[in-house]
Write a structure and sequence with these properties.
Length: about 270
């Protein structure tokens, strides 16, 4: 049964699906929420104790009081969640920004990790990419009604195999009342996050790692994942066929199979 939990500080929201086996924590990307894992989590329950975290400024977690977000701050959210769940060791799975934050966590807390699965993320922000600068220039949007929001919703980047029906359901989970109307649960100031390169972090990761890329991803290039694996000791890579950047949405079953296969290899070590 899905439970909605809050840490003692009442800052962070955690979705806990329960289940048997080793603990696994799922971490979403920028502007996402625990709902990104809705089709992954139930399928993991027969293998793991499953929980997902809303990062600060996202989902049902609180927003930063000063509006500042860093990968270091969001990485500390993972440790706060681990302690709240009373997990000694766990498997960490992150997607996009969640993967970038998980890499930072793994570099500093490898001793509590069974393993790391990092799914389709940017190792660094390329100067040619306008994604962050364009979004960062926007103010928190306010809408008079929810239907107007649903009509405007799209993923970033837009490419996906998700159906219109599933896209609409995803969007419904990202809306909240705000001031005189409604807004998205994501704090728009999070788009100003300082996104430092992961390259100095990779050599510090001691836990076994699986680096995953969507075959059709416009975010994580083939050269990127090869270089990430070369610099991360004991890591391996996997490409999910017919998936764009939003791998957990585009290919939930393949995502589950990748995680389960990776942990079976860990058990055999």
């Amino acid at each position: 049964m899905l439970k909605s939990l809050r840490t003692q500080k009442s800052r962070l929201h955690i979705a806990h699906w329960g289940g048997q086996g080793r603990p696994v924590l799922l971490v979403h990307g920028l502007a996402g929420s625990v709902s990104w894992w809705d089709k992954v989590s139930p399928r993991l329950k027969s293998h793991f104790e499953v929980a997902a975290l809303d990062l600060l400024g996202h989902g049902d977690s609180a927003w930063s009081e000063d509006g500042n977000y860093t990968t270091e701050l969001l990485s500390s959210n993972i440790e706060e969640a681990r302690k709240f769940l009373n997990w000694d060791k766990f498997l960490l799975v992150g997607h996009s920004l969640g993967a970038r934050v998980s890499v930072e966590y793994a570099a500093n807390y490898s001793s509590v990790l069974e393993g790391l699965v990092a799914i389709d993320f940017m190792p660094d922000v390329k100067e040619s990419s306008p994604r962050f600068s364009k979004l960062a220039g926007l103010r928190q949007p306010v809408f008079s009604n929810e239907e107007a929001m649903l009509g405007r919703f799209h993923l970033q980047p837009r490419e996906t195999t998700l159906s219109e029906k599933d896209m609409r359901e995803l969007a419904k989970n990202l809306i909240k009342p705000w001031k005189t109307g409604f807004t998205w649960k994501c704090d728009w100031r999070a788009f100003l996050i300082r996104y430092d390169s992961v390259w100095p972090l990779l050599s510090q990761i001691q836990a076994p790692s699986l680096m995953v890329r969507g075959q059709l991803s416009p975010i994580m290039e083939e050269d990127d994942i090869r270089k990430v694996c070369r610099q991360t000791r004991g890591s391996e890579s996997l490409e999910i066929p017919n998936a764009y950047h939003h791998v957990p949405l585009d290919a939930p079953q393949a995502t589950v199979e990748a995680i389960v296969c990776f942990t079976r290899k860990l058990a055999a070590l």
